[in-house]
Design goal:
Blueprint (H helix, E strand, L loop, with lengths): L5 H7 L17 E2 L11 H8 L2 H6 L7 H11 L6 E4 L1 H13 L5 E6 L3 H8 L4 E6 L10 H8 L4 E7 L11 H10 L4 E5 L21 E6 L12 E5 L1 H9 L8 H10 L3 H23 L4 E3 L6 E6 L4 H7 L2 E2 L1 E2 L12 E4 L4 H19 L1
Parallel strand pairs: 1-11, 3-4, 3-5, 5-6, 6-7
Antiparallel strand pairs: 2-8, 7-8, 9-10, 10-13, 12-13
Helix pairs in contact: 2-10, 4-10, 5-6, 11-13
Length: 366
Amino acid sequence: MIHPNKQVQRYMKTNVGGYVDKTVSKPHGLRYDLGETDLTPLILRDILREIDLKGLVKQYPDSSYTKLLSAISKKYNLHKQCITIGTGANEIIERIARTYLDQDDRCVILHPTFFRIEDATLRYTKNVVDIYLKEENGYRIGDDEIERMRNLNKIRLIWICTPNNPTGTITPLSRIKQMAEMHPKTLICVDEVYGEYVKSPSSSTIIKDYKNLIVIRSYSKALGLSGLRVGYGLGNENLMIPLNRMRLEFPVNGLASEIAHSLLENRDYIKGLVDKISSERAWVEDELSKTDGMSYIPSETNIMLIRHKNIDLYKQLLKKGILVTDMNNLKGVEGKKYVRITIKHNHDENVILVNKLKELAENQSC
């Protein structure tokens, strides 16, 4: 029998509590589970009318991704050398771990967080320090967590997800600066995939000041291109050179690249979506607050952690044709019966979800 290498054998013994199963299809139902926007950008129709679809399908993409890099460079006022392109943020996370971690390197992960951060990390190092955010603090980074990191030595990498997934909470820029300054020889990787949803400053604004900072962004959430798989990383040129060297020649297909570079500059669309989601989120929170037994973690994005004190929401909603994300096995919230919901742009869809939740709660109290 031919075995994989020792690194893969070690990784295969780990058990990361995620919520995406690569081996089975998702159950059928109304989807409130993966955090995408339900709104397709109107500009997408114009873009598709103007592009040479046949040419894009027949030919390899431009491996330099000049147009896409130019659009990202303009948006963030960064040189192209400070950017790397990838097959969604997921692949950028994987490439960072592959590029910067050896098997004994110490890496810090703050839980709960996006499960792929832990999964990618464990593929390349066995030395992971888990720090658990407190539920009573809304799963936000506080002084206790900062002090714990301050007392750690020889940290190679710290992962921060802000806005966090699955909580939708943010880590203020002051905290990011604090960590970058506290460990100047440590790589600070900030996952900002949900960043378009918040009005607070992005960590991308301080890249020129901190040479140990990488910011990860995506087209999958607010920009509405989940199926096209486009992501990118931002950082100091010296951090990006190895990441670009480790990049595949064609990580983004030609069609996705053509759409992505055009969409990034559509700021009116993004602002309109964010304002609408903010309004819908406030309505959902208000309705949940009036529902017996229901609680939630206040969010600043289109995702939110909710639970009922007596009901397994994932199973019961699934019976009613509603698919949410089961968080019961995710490190940091395991066993707490949380589910993650996606707040939609379409108010009627949010009404459907809230009414089903109220129905479950009312039946429980009878």
